[in-house]
Amino acid sequence: MAKIDLQLPTIQNWSCHNCGGCCRQHLIAITEDEKQRIDRQKWTEKDGISESVAVVEKNSDSKTRPWRLGHQKDGACVFLQDDGLCRIHAKFGEEAKPLACRLYPYAFHPMGKKITVGLRYSCPSVVANKGAGVADQIGDLKKYAKAVVPDHYQQTPPPNITPKEKSLEWSDILKVVSSLDAAFEDAETPFTLQMLRTVSWVNLLSQSSFEKIQGTRIDDLLELLIAAAEMEWEELPTEVERISRIGRVMFRLMISVYGRKETQQELDSPWKSRLLSLKATTKFAWGGGQTPELYEMLPPVSFAEIENFNCGLPEGFDELFRRYVRMKIQGMHFCGAAYYFYPVTTGFFSLALMVPVTLWLARWIAIGQNHDQVTQDDLELAMAIADHHHGYSPVLGLSPFRKRVEYLNSFGDIPRLILNYAR
Ligand code: SF4
């Protein structure tokens, strides 16, 4: 196999703290080979696996992974022990586990000729930046990359730059990506101001024509747009513009996706799940009365309470969001093959919307916990809930969702939403 050129994040720590959260939240789809390996492991009651639960079940959602691991009554993976450890790992070692379990929370994405390593913020240890530096884990990462990157990988086609413009070379796309990352590098500038400026120049970029702008001209264009955005947003405004009526509805519909938890029970009764989802969507579109049931961590509270919660932000807000956004950019986890083939500009808007989405969920958690302001724990939990879907939930890849992101940008609502909730 050819050598894989890995690009590692420099700003993230992570080690597994055995919280078992991933083994409770995720449905683990496995290949035919993995199923056969688990069959050969011959799990019985003596190993703590009840005969009343299936070890492996059919997965009709995927042709390449036609099976999934079974679940205990509370929804946890059939192999999860009470101490938060994995039975397969304990009995046969790490390599005997399904690949998806071994990789999580790492994600490997194409970046020109390189493969970039990202991390999923649905893992609480990633959100809290706990553990060893990811860059120091190169040995394990090389091993995992070999398992996921196809033999003789050359490079995938680059993502489109805007919804209308297609063909830029990877080298030009990477100039835009590195400008996006640089926009959040300075830890002295408030994150919210950095995000407003970046949304502004990406919006100008999304309206540009690239027919004659390639190579060094991209550098000139970026310099010009970034300077214009800095002039537009010299500092954070004291007044917040009203979000358009339609923008509010679209935003709430986004929350109804990001706040959901897909449980084993829902998969077992898809009609009930669809009905619940339809009811939740209707309630979010209306935006009045009590919030519907989406997730056990999000108890019913009133929509009005969430909207009017004047809570301030915890001290760690800037560091957490700056790291999150930079990790998604460095990991190419916002556009192209890693993000439903969104163009770079639309993908960035979608990432920017994670700020108000997460803050809205954090308010919901805070009110449900009777906190008088959003705490760092509320914010971290909200991020873990929302990021579980970002790049993974199929709904986000559908055309209506993508159009919602583009509409919110064209109505000018993205900066308003950010400012409204990041107060
Ligand atoms: S197989 Fe092990 S690591 Fe994978 S989800 Fe189940 S308990 Fe967790």
Description:
With 423 residues, the chain is mainly alpha-helical. The protein has two domains: 6-148, no CATH class; 157-423, no CATH class. It is 47% helix and 5% strand. The chain has helices at residues 21-25, 32-40, 87-92, 99-103, 124-127, 138-148, 170-182, 191-206, 216-232, 245-258, 264-268, 270-286, 303-308, 317-330, 344-368, 376-387, 399-410, 413-421, and strands at 6-7, 29-30, 56-58, 67-69, 106-111, 114-119. Strands 1-6-5 form a three-stranded mixed sheet, sandwiched between helices. β5 and β6 (114-119) form a beta hairpin. α8 crosses α9 (216-232) and α15 packs across α17 (399-410). The chain is globular, with a radius of gyration of 22 Å. The mean pLDDT is 91. Bound molecules: iron/sulfur cluster. Iron/sulfur cluster is lined by residues 23, 28, 69, 77, 79-80, 86, 88, 97-98, 101.
List key phrases describing it.
single chain, 423 residues, mainly alpha, 3-stranded mixed beta sheet, 3-stranded antiparallel beta sheet, 47% helix, binds iron/sulfur cluster
Strand order in space, largest sheet:
1-6-5
Report the order of strands and helices: EHEHEEHHEEHHHHHHHHHHHHHH
Output the structural class: mainly alpha
Straight-line distance between termini: 51 Å
Task: Provide the β-strand percentage band.
Answer: 5-15%
Q: Uncertain regions: pLDDT < 50 for 5+ in a row? A: none
Arithmetic mean of pLDDT:
91
Shape descriptor reads: globular
